[in-house]
């Protein structure tokens, strides 16, 4: 998530103040302190800054407002600023000027506003400008403009090549580390923001579904009452009695499902308690029953694992979704493997966790789609009725139980979804109630 380039207007307003600051500091340093013997080049640089700042201010209101154009304008401003800052430092003893590291501010701003490789290009430009000036000074291609600090011997000492090299290495490493760490922080902020956005979507969907479930519950009560009346009238017919009993059981399951959906949308809708993952795995396999495709072999390797902190029904819902996706990923048959195991210390930072691995030998998931499969409405099988809500809901539910879902996949070899849950702790469970 980059900041909007239209918000760089503050950068132009700030540059007016910087132009004035260069003029004032140069005047005071040369007139009263005598630090700058030749202030004229610095005044010219400040004038040049004012000129290109006026050009960019005009451009903000008259140039195209597309994202590409805005990126170019912002990068152009920063490039001009780097050139101006290099000139200011050159005319004020660049090798000994402590303001050399002001370039870091431009690196941070570039990472905040620019897209793609442009922040690296800005860092490369700063490196070449400063390195070029230091090298040109060292070989004598350009004159040096030393500063005369109070109580310093006259004339000022020459700057050695080793000192220039040290300044260049320190400067270069500083600005490149600033770019790297700023971009890394941006990456994690972007990912966290995306996860929050997706969770907000799922919560909104959950509330919508809960409202629909509420609307279903009202006529469902009427149907159940009518069915009770009908069943009383067909007691003498054994066959019709069997049918009405089956219908009553089906309506009861629908009612329970509606109530559970409503519970998911409520705060603290999941009741955390001691949960046996092996029982949840076996119960879900029974629900799957014979609905899986012909040619799909189901294998289980259930270890003696401790109880976890979770909700049994919710865990079954998640596992059923993972099973169904795995079966669908094997249109020509294959093997569905379910493994439960205690997480090893080398695999996790914290011990006391249990993993449920659901692996298939199906078509696999392309690398570019791995991070999208948990997004709401993202699906690769829309033609066959996929909604793209299952995996996003699974991740949200597992997250509410304090766990997470990991995925590994290789195209043509299959996928493995791993549900990791915390071991049940009575004290922790009571604290979260």
Low-pLDDT parts are none
Determine the structural class based on helices, strands and strand pairing.
Answer: alpha+beta
Strand order of the largest sheet: 2-4-5-7-6
The radius of gyration computed from the alpha-carbon positions, rounded to a whole number of angstroms, is 34 Å
Give the name of the CATH superfamily of the largest domain.
Answer: Histidine kinase-like ATPase, C-terminal domain
Give the proportion of residues in helices. Answer: 55-70%
* Count of structural domains: 3
CATH architecture of the largest domain: 2-Layer Sandwich
Report the count of strand segments. 7
Distance between the termini: 36 Å
Tally of helical segments = 12
Q: Tell me the CATH topology of the largest domain.
A: Heat Shock Protein 90
Task: Give the DSSP E fraction (strand runs of 2 or more residues).
Answer: 5-15%
Order of helices and strands: HHHHHHHEHEEHEEHHEEH
Biggest sheet overview: 5 strands, mixed
Q: Name the shape in a single word.
A: elongated
Mean pLDDT comes to 81
CATH uppermost class of the largest domain: Alpha Beta
């Amino acid at each position: 998530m980059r900041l909007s380039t239209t918000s760089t207007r503050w950068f132009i307003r700030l540059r007016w103040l910087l132009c004035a600051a260069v003029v004032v500091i140069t005047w005071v340093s040369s007139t009263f302190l005598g630090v700058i013997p030749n202030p004229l080049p610095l005044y010219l640089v400040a004038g040049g800054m004012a000129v290109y700042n006026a050009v960019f201010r005009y451009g903000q209101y008259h140039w195209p407002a597309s994202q590409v154009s805005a990126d170019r304008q912002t990068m152009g401003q920063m490039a001009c600023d780097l050139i101006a800052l290099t000139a200011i430092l050159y005319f004020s003893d660049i090798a000994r000027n402590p303001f050399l590291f002001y370039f870091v501010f431009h690196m941070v701003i570039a990472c905040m506003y620019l897209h793609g490789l442009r922040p690296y290009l800005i860092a490369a430009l700063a490196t070449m400008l400063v390195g070029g000036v230091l090298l040109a000074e060292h070989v004598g291609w350009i004159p040096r403009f030393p500063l005369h600090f109070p109580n310093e011997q006259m004339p000022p000492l020459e700057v050695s090549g080793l000192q220039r090299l040290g300044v260049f290495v320190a400067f270069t490493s500083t600005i490149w580390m600033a770019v790297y760490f700023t971009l890394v922080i941006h990456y994690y902020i972007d990912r966290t923001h995306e996860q929050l956005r997706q969770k907000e979507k799922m919560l909104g969907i959950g509330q919508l579904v809960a409202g629909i479930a509420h609307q279903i519950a009202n006529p469902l009560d009427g149907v159940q009452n009518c069915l009770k009346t009908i069943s009383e009238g067909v007691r003498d017919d054994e066959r019709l009695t069997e049918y009405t009993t089956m219908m009553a059981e089906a309506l009861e399951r629908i009612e329970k499902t509606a109530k559970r959906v409503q519970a998911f949308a409520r705060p603290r809708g999941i009741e955390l308690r001691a949960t046996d993952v092996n029982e949840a795995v076996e119960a879900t396999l029974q629900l799957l029953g014979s609905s899986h495709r012909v040619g799909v072999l189901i294998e289980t390797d259930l270890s003696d694992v401790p109880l976890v902190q979770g909700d049994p029904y919710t865990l079954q819902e998640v596992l059923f979704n993972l099973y169904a996706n795995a079966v669908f990923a094997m249109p020509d048959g294959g093997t569905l493997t379910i493994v439960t195991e205690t997480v090893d210390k080398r695999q996790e930072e914290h011990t006391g966790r249990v993993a449920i691995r659901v692996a298939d030998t199906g078509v696999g998931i392309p690398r570019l789609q791995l991070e999208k499969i948990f997004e709401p409405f993202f699906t690769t099988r829309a033609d066959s009725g996929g909604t793209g809500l299952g995996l996003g809901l699974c991740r949200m539910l597992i997250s509410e139980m304090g766990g997470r879902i990991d995925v590994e996949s290789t195209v043509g070899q299959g996928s493995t979804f791993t549900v990791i849950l915390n071991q049940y702790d009575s004290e922790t469970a009571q604290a979260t109630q």
